[in-house]
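Per your request, structure below.
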């Protein structure tokens, strides 16, 4: 075997060794940090729910469905917001919806009679910067604070929500997410 072949084998061996060590280190750090990531996500959700229905003072009861996540845990469908006496004062939820570019995740809240939207927030999206991405701005979000559920549609369709200019699909996606989940929760709570 020539010296250049030996050098190539040595280099390849070193690269394989470095790759194996890097993979082991990544695996070792993933396990302890994955639990902390789940805790951080749960805490973030509590904060968001509290912003949507502050009267609940962080008192939210999880409602589970029949489906389970990848780890075998039941999936939370929505949350019942409870007052200090344990009475239901509303419902909060997270809903994924197809947007103009990619799925977006919307958090929303509705009162206990399903008549008033308490508010909404877009948690993640990949909408076009300067257009659809404006769904996270206060000018759009504030339109959803304490509005009647039956007027939850674009103003061009007789509702009370003004679409973002040039981003009607993104605006409609937020409305669709809220309407879909509110209808679903109302049906489940009957």
């Amino acid at each position: 075997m020539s010296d250049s072949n030996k050098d190539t084998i040595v280099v390849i061996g070193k690269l394989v060794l470095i790759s194996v060590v890097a993979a082991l280190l990544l695996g070792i750090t993933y396990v302890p940090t994955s639990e902390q990531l789940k805790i951080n996500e749960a805490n973030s959700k509590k904060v968001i729910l509290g912003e949507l229905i502050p009267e609940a003072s962080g008192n939210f009861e999880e409602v589970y469905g029949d489906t389970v996540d990848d780890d075998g845990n039941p999936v939370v469908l929505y949350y019942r917001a409870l007052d200090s006496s344990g009475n239901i004062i509303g419902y909060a939820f997270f809903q994924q919806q197809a947007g103009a570019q990619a799925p977006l995740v919307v958090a929303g809240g509705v009162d206990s009679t399903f008549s008033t939207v308490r508010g909404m927030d877009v948690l993640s999206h990949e909408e076009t910067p300067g257009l659809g991405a404006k769904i996270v701005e206060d000018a759009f979000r504030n339109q959803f604070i304490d509005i009647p559920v039956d007027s939850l549609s674009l103003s061009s369709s007789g509702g009370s929500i003004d679409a973002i200019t040039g981003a009607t699909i993104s605006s409609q996606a937020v409305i669709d997410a809220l309407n879909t989940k509110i209808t679903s929760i109302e049906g489940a709570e009957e």
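Strands lie at 60-68, 74-82, 88-98, 103-111, 116-124, 147-148.

Regards,
D.
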